[in-house]
TrEMBL record:
Keywords: Cytoplasm, Repeat, TPR repeat. Belongs to the Rap family. This is Tetratricopeptide repeat protein. It comes from the Bacteria. It is found in: Cytoplasm. Its main location: cytoplasm. SMART domains: TPR (SM00028). It holds the Pfam family TPR_2. Residues 340-359 have a biased composition (Low complexity). Transmembrane segments: none annotated. InterPro entries: Bac_ResReg_Asp_Phosphatase (IPR051476), TPR-like_helical_dom_sf (IPR011990), TPR_2 (IPR013105), TPR_rpt (IPR019734). Residues 337-359 are annotated as: Disordered.
Length: 359
């Protein structure tokens, strides 16, 4: 039913690059192709090369390089008058904005990318752009607004037999079920994503699916099995130099250890993940790692006044980013640690408004 996974963001002369190519390899070949395109005077090949530079740099956590490259890709695509290439460039910019925590900007760029892709009749770019909008809403916790879009994109991906996009949609919907407490449904969808990505040789999607399975198993008390799955996923992340995925893997390991009452080990994992997120300027991951770190330190005897102050700062930080689900996690942490919560938070209306994705 599903073919082998491919990476549509590697375009033109780079389209033969495997979805499992290490990011350093992608970056080296993209820079080489950029030099050739400059010598040949090919604006379209320049757009393709800069797009690959942008995506490899983003996934390696080199956000400044990624920012320069996606904008250069867009300028070259506009010079070539290629709407599809313009859409891919703006998609890359929107994805980078989401990674950096600029969620309103991410929605703006991704909506523009979807429009460009539709005008340029690039079905795949349109699907990726809409998927980006859906994911932005999902990580903010606005499931009602984006749940239907996730389901629609899943149906489209299944119909086309596109393994990589099917896996992405399954994992996104599974995450919403997991966060809503429907653990059996979440586990089944994560396991299907792992099966499809394994058959399609999509190592990145497989690593994320294993992380999701580990999360749900941990909630059921299956600590050692969860840790084994995270170790398997970590090998893939290291081999492919998936810097962001590796940091989230380490944060999840902290979650698993914390749930098992192994607070000192959890603290160490959270601290390492926090450093990784800060190094790549990823505020969402940094805030979530900080939350785990604060909870671990509290369990290890950190003073209550300091814990309360750190939780209040995290509540404000997550509110500014617009992560409603994550802010609820802070409130749950307060309750878990026996600390008072403030139900009349003036930041709530603004955050709720910010969480609505573009149509």
């Amino acid at each position: 039913m599903y073919g082998k996974a491919f990476a549509p963001e590697y375009r033109g002369s780079l389209e033969d690059l495997s979805v499992n190519a290490s990011l350093e390899e992608v970056l080296a070949k993209a820079v080489e192709q950029r030099q050739r395109a400059e010598l040949d005077g090919s604006a379209l090949e320049m757009a393709h090369a800069e797009l690959a530079v942008a995506e490899a740099s983003r996934r390696l956590g080199r956000v400044a390089d990624a920012e320069r490259a996606w904008k250069a890709s867009y300028r070259a695509a506009r010079q070539a008058a290629d709407l599809g290439a313009m859409a891919w460039a703006v998609w890359s910019g929107g994805t980078l904005a989401r990674q950096r925590g600029a969620l309103a900007l991410a929605r703006r760029w991704l909506a523009i990318a979807a429009g460009l892709a539709e005008r340029g009749d690039d079905i795949v770019a349109r699907g990726y752009s809409l998927a980006g909008l859906a994911e932005t809403g999902r990580i903010q916790g606005d499931y009602q607004a984006v749940g239907e879009l996730h389901e629609k994109l899943l149906a489209e991906a299944r119909r086309r037999g596109e393994a990589r996009h099917t896996v992405w949609a399954l994992e996104g919907i599974a995450q919403m079920h997991r966060n809503s407490g429907s653990y059996d449904t979440a586990l089944a969808m994560f396991e299907e994503a792992a099966e499809i990505s394994g058959r399609a040789d999509d190592a990145r999607g497989h690593a994320w699916a294993l992380r999701g399975i580990a999360d749900v198993l941990s909630l059921r008390g299956e600590t050692e099995r969860a840790l084994a799955l995270l170790s398997e996923a970590e090998e893939t992340c290291r081999r492919m130099k998936l810097v962001s995925a590796l940091a989230y893997n380490h944060k999840m390991r902290g979650n698993v250890l914390f749930r098992a009452g192994r607070y000192a080990e959890a603290e160490e994992c959270y601290r390492g993940a926090l450093e990784e997120f800060r190094e790549m300027a990823e505020p969402r991951g940094a805030a979530l790692a900080r939350l785990g770190l604060v909870k671990s330190r509290a369990r290890l005897g950190h003073d209550r006044a300091g814990t309360a102050a750190e939780l209040e700062d995290l509540h404000r930080t997550l509110g500014r980013i617009g992560l409603l689900h994550a802010r609820r996690m802070v409130e749950e942490a307060r309750a878990e640690l026996g600390m008072p919560t403030d139900p009349t938070d003036p930041a709530e209306p603004a955050a709720a408004t910010a969480a609505r994705p573009a149509a």
